[in-house]
Amino acid sequence: MAISENKIYQIALTLIPKIGDVLIRQLISYCGSAEQVFQTPVAKLQKIPNIGKTLALNLQDKSVLEKAQKIVQEAEKQQVELLFYTDKKYPNRLKQLYDAPVLLYYKGKADLNHTRTIAIVGTRQSTEYGKSVTEEIIEDIKPFNPLVISGLAYGIDIVAHKACLKNTVPTLGVMASGIDLIYPYQHKNVSVQMQELGGIITEQTFETQPDPRFFPQRNRIIAGMADVTIVVEAAIKGGALITAEYANNYHRDVFAVPGQLGKSFSEGCNKLIKEKKAEIYTSIQDVVETLNWDLLGNEKSQVNKVALDLSHFTEEESQIMALLHKNQVMEIDELAWQSQIHIAKLSSLLLNLEFQGVLKSLPGKKYAISVR
Q1: Nearest CA to 116 among 306, 293, 281?
Q2: Domain map of the chain by residue range?
Q3: Dist CA 94 CA 330 (whole Å)
Q4: Contacts of 284 by beta carbon, 8 Å cutoff, 6+ apart
Q5: Max Cα distance, the chain (Å)
Q6: What are the pLDDT tens digits along the chain (372 aa)?
């Protein structure tokens, strides 16, 4: 696995003290590349918004390049992929989020840009009811072959991962530790099996121990990579509700399995439904109808067969139609990212194309070419 020199600079950026994902993207936007960030003089760096003198001076420290080189060597040794946010294989669903991690450590065979993705989360103290519901969800979604995402934790998470392995459904475990430190350790064998069809992924570098502050960060990745999040069981407070909150903030669909009144691990799900932060989950058909999974399955081949005549469209309309022809169904944020058209103007263009009858809007701010 060959690593470019620019990749070393990209990794080095993540090792700079007092820097975060948002600032890294901002620096690269201003300077042009990760390497150019390190070549830019302190005076020029300080002119970039939110880049103070301390951070500008930290960016002159070339010792981080040596540390980055060691990370590259370790990645090659452990067959771990280092995915920067500008890489083609980086999850597109995360690219559109302002707070997405700029660097991911990934090991496995899953397509991180799978057509269908679903997160299943819940309490670590799962009941038999929660386990059986989780297993039933996995069995029911098997015909749709989605990528199932969860957090590799005790309870609902590990039940979901194991059910996926049993049903040969690809599953991805998002970790709050370094990719070489499986937590909890008891799930190491499961994580190895997952890599044959799915995989494991984290934003934490090698040898990073799990820490309470990393788990909410992990939850944003779970929510950000999924088209829909299903909360099976949850207490009134906990990681599952944090994941649901992130999903809502990212304008992704959320479902919650209703639970028995008076039971502590039903309170979280019932609260989400009551506060209209989640739709009630009654069967997999709820998800299928909301995400138009049937439509995706039935029309995908038809869309590919349509001869795309762009001669009567404007340049920007042609760009939108070409993207939809290639990807079948896309969210408006992803269309904006790939087309580089401002979202306000993009909304107007999409509405015009819809009036022309050449595309249709779907639930969840998604769009597809209208097959006729």
Answers
A1: 293
A2: 1-78, 108-291, 293-369
A3: 14
A4: 137, 140, 141
A5: 62
A6: 446 678 999 999 999 988 999 999 999 989 999 999 999 999 999 999 889 899 999 998 889 999 999 999 999 999 999 999 999 999 999 988 889 999 999 999 999 999 999 999 999 999 999 999 999 999 999 999 999 999 999 999 999 999 999 999 999 999 999 999 999 999 999 999 999 999 999 999 999 999 999 999 999 999 999 999 999 999 998 899 999 999 999 989 999 999 888 788 889 999 999 999 999 999 999 999 888 887 555 444 444 444 456 667 888 888 888 888 877 788 888 888 888 888 889 999 999 998 888 888 887 778 888 754
- Strands 366-369 and 359-362 come out as antiparallel
Sequence-ordered alpha helix ranges (H) in the chain: 5-14, 21-31, 34-39, 42-45, 53-58, 63-78, 92-95, 128-141, 156-166, 188-194, 214-225, 239-249, 264-274, 284-291, 293-305, 315-327, 332-339, 343-356
Q: Which CATH class is domain 108-291?
A: alpha beta
CATH class of the domain comprising 1-78: mainly alpha
216's tokens: 């909410």
Q: Rounded CA gap, 249 and 241, in Å? A: 12
> Parallel, antiparallel, or unpaired for β 253-256 and 171-174?
unpaired
Helix (H/G/I), strand (E/B), else coil: 303: helix
Second-level CATH architecture of 293-369: Orthogonal Bundle (1.10)
Tell me the pTM: 0.81
Within 13 Å, how many C-alpha atoms sit on residue 188's CB side? 7
